[in-house]
Design goal:
With 71 residues, the protein is mainly α. Helices cover 49% and strands 0% of the residues.
Length: 71
């Protein structure tokens, strides 16, 4: 679920999500899973942004959102 490919500046993706959009995606997935009592495994994937700093920020944000939902 935690891919960086949908990022708007990813060279291989195509979904055009902003950094904030990716955080909203992550939070939505965790919220829906928690509501249904479903476990979530995070696999960091993708990362073909023009700036490696953006990829790092995307993956770091995913980990931070996961931490918010950790039991």
């Amino acid at each position: 679920m935690a891919g960086a490919d949908p990022y708007c500046d990813d060279q291989l993706g195509g979904l055009k999500l902003s950094l904030e959009g990716l955080v909203r995606r992550d939070r939505l997935v965790f919220e829906k899973a928690r509501a249904k009592n479903i476990s979530v495994a995070v696999a960091l994937a993708g990362g073909y942004a023009r700036r490696v700093e953006d990829t790092i920020q995307i993956h770091t944000a995913t980990i931070q959102v996961a931490k918010e939902f950790a039991k």
